[in-house]
Amino acid sequence: MIFANPSSPEKTSERLQPTGWLRYFSFSLDHKVIGLQYLICGFIFYLIGGSLASAIRVELTSPISDFMARDVYNQVLTLHGTIMIFLWIVPVVNGAFGNYLIPFYVGARDMAFPRLNAVAFWLIPPAGLMLISSYFITGAAESGWTAYPPLSITTPATGQIIWIISVLLLGGSSIFGGINFIATILKLRQPGLKLMQLPMYCWAMLGTSILVVLSTPVLAGTLILLSFDIVAHTGFFNPSMGGNVIVYQHLFWFYSHPAVYIMVLPAFGLVSEILPVHCRKPLFGYTTMVYSIMAIVGLGLVVWAHHMFTSGTPPWMRLFFTIATSFIAVPTGIKFFNWVATLWGGKISLNSAVLFSCGFIINFVLGGITGVALAQVPFDVHVHDTYFVVAHFHYIVYGGSVFVIFSSIYHWYPKFTGRMLNENIGRLHFVLTFIGFNLCFAPQHWLGLNGMPRRVAEYDPQFTFVNQLSSAGALLMALSTLPFLWNVINSAMNGPIAGDNPWRALTPEWLTSSPPPVENWEGKAPLVNEPYGYGRSTKNPKSPNDGERDTK
Amino acid sequence: MPVPKTILAIFSGAIAVAAGIWIGQNVNLLPIEASENAPVYDELFRVLFSIGTVLFVGILGLVVFSLIKFRRKSGDSEDGIPLEGNLSLEIFWTAVPAVVILFVGIYSYDIYDRMGGMNPLAHGASHDHQAIATQERVWGGIGSGSISDKADSTISPLPIEVTAMQFAFLFHYPEGDIISGELHVPTGRRVNMRMESKDVIHAFWVPEFRLKQDVIPGQPTILSFTPTKPGRYPIICAELCGPYHGGMRSTVVVEKPSEYEDWFNKNSKIPVLET
User: Fold this and answer.
1) ipTM, 2 decimals?
2) Rounded to whole angstroms, what are the CA distances from A475 to A56, A195, A272, A471, A480?
3) Interface test mutation site (partner A, options B93, B198, B210, B223, max chain A beta carbons within 10 A)
4) pLDDT number for residue B138
5) Which of A310, A341, A347 shows the shortest C-beta gap to B78?
6) CB–CB contact B219 A239 (8 Å)
7) Cross-chain residue pair B117–A322, CB shorter than 8 Å
8) What chain B residue is nearest to A155 in terms of C-alpha separation?
């Protein structure tokens, strides 16, 4: 096993891998190549998942089921959810940016287990292709991304089994990644770099990886039992054989609620890296940010049953999970106030990265408020499983995580490619996405409150106009990807040369060339003890971490 | 003479709070109230909507204000103030959400209790209901409790057995051995439903009653409500149950007690004994 370590300067992985563009199609061991593989692979799946979302919105422009067959509609919504969660957001906010940034942030030349890292990535394309191909074989799974039995046991078995195998592979990939991040952050830190001096994204990834390692195996075990029920006709979750369907829901949400934090905690970390650079200010309240991440990790593991308030849960359980869920708002709120305080008194560049980060703050606050409301049992019994919930979680995962992914692409693109993106096209992308997103999902709150359940292909005609409004927003969102795609492709070839550090940032990934060499730094890795030391030394704002400042 | 900043800040904060409360109390996003449960729910909704609007408008205002006020002027390459934190501020904005959450939690507990959610099994005045409760693996839904306890002493609750299947609801009235595809209920009398599914998980949802409970195979669930407003309201299946899930709907007809009696007597298979 190759154990990359800053104290072993020989270029271990360089001779093992091809160079040039071909390396992105190889079993590369370079964490930066793997990071970009995750990012581009994820984005391709995002385009597929987005097309499925568009198909759903087209179907919902009319109150009758007329655009596609009813079972196809259920397959489309199942694939949409599964792809967006397991093939786009989770791999990108964790795998892509985690792999690219974490070794830089701890001062290492690669991840702790480079080979495991490559395996973790290369599980994703076959799993994704298998999942999508199931549609063309016998039809994809059609029981939603939650795959609740007994529906998942009674719908066509082939699609459901392929879905289970795909999710198991993706879960395995996620666990490998999580173990690798924990080992890298805790064991590959440079001598002299303290835990409380790490950039915030390291803390977010440490917390996320703990959640991944603790909860993903539970999902894997649950899905294996479910596959036994389907294939071998066992009765774990099959009520006609004495099984219990509620047990599945408990096990499923034990993973799938933490999965929300697996999607948003890394996004919190990325925003904490982006805002200080473009505001030219230190991150406000570093210590409370760290504690609130860890509080979210702890609480995130004990809130799962709020997805089951209408499932038939005893009153004491409803009460406990209401309280636990509500209290997640406290550490989350701290983070939002701290970001606003980071903006306050800064010198903010209104570029695409900042706009998407601030869009994230606004969207996520709305999603958080509806989240606290949904945590209240009496509130939830009316809107559970309705479009109110659809709106809520899209504000969290799209308005939250996906906005941050775009913000991060605008921020780190110069480092990835050595070239700058066009800012005007970036701002156009932001405006289209922000308006389209809010037009698509804000009206859905009303739909849910007034009686439109989720996962339906047909609905009460009184909801037609609002659904068409929502579909118009979806169209705008779909169109907004076009300027983005043109920007990233064109700028890769024709964009202005970025230089090592176009944002005058202080975190270690900027203290090397763009794109960085194979082992990250030509010489000794720089020791960065103050990743957010903006405003300290106005004479030399570029490198307050050089020279004597490192001696402490 | 410029207005002091503190006064401006307090003033804009007060406007945000007032606007939030006004919007929360006056913008109605909900359908009509047709059960005893619904006004209680709407009271909670208005409070949460007010608090949410104040918080959202506040943060939105702060972000937009910061982006405009603190934007970098062209040619300015200086850094901002090196402010790394402020303990008292951070304690303040830990405490405020904690107090708000505590209030919301206690308030929604109170609402939950008033809806009868805390003790759905013990409050059932009907022996029938208690008999259900003692069965193994029967779990209650919300709304089975205390609101209409006073009425219980004079009018006995109406027991109905609900069967859900792909893709329909069936309602069985044991009192008259009626089986109906439409749910008929009188105003002012509590309805105790015992629900079970024949195949996959469904859910019984009436938006105008603000109530929902999953209908589960192999595990009966119970749900109680007292209708108040005559009318025809949709019963909607809210849990994905197969290709025709979107079409799995029925109607609840809430009638005045006399009209309900007529319907009941017309359809009853058991001769009316009480005269």
Assistant:
1) 0.90
2) 11, 45, 31, 6, 9
3) B93
4) 56
5) A347
6) yes
7) no
8) B242
B106-126: b or e for each residue (b if 16 or more CB lie within 10 Å)?
Answer: ebbbebbebbbbbebbebbbb
Give A502 to chain B, closest Cα distance, Å: 12
User: Cβ of B75: how many Cβ atoms within 10 Å?
Assistant: 5
Is the distance from CB of A55 to CB of A64 less than 8 angstroms? no
Reduce the secondary structure of A84-142 to three states and give it as a string. HHHHHHHHHHHHHHHHHHHHHHHCCCCCCCHHHHHHHHHCHHHHHHHHHHHHHHCCCCC
For chain B, the domains span 5-65+90-114, 127-267
Query: Residue A22 has what pLDDT?
Result: 74
At the topology level, CATH places domain A34-551 in Cytochrome C Oxidase; Chain A (1.20.210)
pLDDT, tens digit, for every residue of A500-521? 999 999 999 999 998 999 889 8
Distance CA A495, CA A508 (A): 24
Give me the phi and psi of B204, to 5 degrees please.
-100, 115
B224: tokens are: 């109680």
Which of A197, A310, A506, A536 to probe the B interface (max B CBs under 10 A)?
A: A310
3-state percent breakdown (helix, strand, coil) of chain A, nearest 5: 70, 0, 30
**Nearest CA-CA distance, residue A106 and chain B, Å:** 21
For chain A, what are the domain ranges? Answer: 34-551
Q: Tell me the nearest-neighbour CA distance from B214 into chain A, angstroms.
A: 5
| Per-residue pLDDT at B149 exceeds 70 | no
Q: Which of A343, A479, A494 is nearest to A418 (CA)?
A: A494
> Do the bridges between strand B168-173 and strand B178-180 make them parallel or antiparallel, or are there none, so unpaired?
antiparallel
Nearest to B199 by CA among B232, B164, B172: B164
**Maximum Cα interatomic distance, chain B, rounded to a whole number of Å:** 93
Q: What share of chain B is helix, strand, coil (3-state, %, to 5)?
A: 45, 25, 35
The answer to whether the Cβ–Cβ distance between B48 and A373 falls below 8 Å is yes
Q: What is the DSSP letter of A14?
A: G
**Which among B66, B150, B134 has a CA at the least distance from the CA of A362?**
B66
Q: Where are the alpha helices (DSSP H) in A351-399?
A: 352-375, 377-383, 387-396
C-alpha to C-alpha distance for A42 and A354, rounded to whole angstroms = 23
Instruction: Note the pLDDT of residue A544.
Output: 44
Q: Which of residues 97-156 of B touch A (CB under 8 A)?
A: 97-98, 101, 104-105, 108-109, 111-112, 115, 117-120, 139-143
Taking the CA of residue B266 and the nearest CA in chain A, the distance in Å comes to: 31
Task: Nearest chain B residue to A316 by CA: give it.
Answer: B118
Strand partners, B217: B197
Beta-carbon separation of B45 and A379 below 8 A: yes
Q: Which residue has the tokens 């029925």?
A: B250
pLDDT in tens, B97-117: 999 999 999 999 888 888 877
Question: Over 90: is that where the pLDDT of B125 sits?
Answer: no
Give pLDDT, residue A482.
96
Architecture of domain B127-267: Sandwich (2.60)
Nearest CB neighbour to A535, from listed B29, B79, B199: B79
How far apart are the CA of A176 and the nearest CA of chain B, in angstroms?
A: 33
Map A422-437 to HEC letters. Answer: CHHHHHHHHHHHHHHH
Task: Name residues of chain A where pLDDT drops below 50.
Answer: 1-13, 538-552
Average model confidence (pLDDT) for chain B?
84
Q: Compare CB distances from B56 to A283, A358, A365 and report the shortest one's residue.
A: A365
Work out the number of other CB atoms within 10 angstroms of the CB of residue A149.
Answer: 27
Of the two residues B93 and A16, the one the predictor is more confident about is B93
Residue B272 distance to chain A (closest CA, Å): 35
DSSP three-state, residue B219: strand
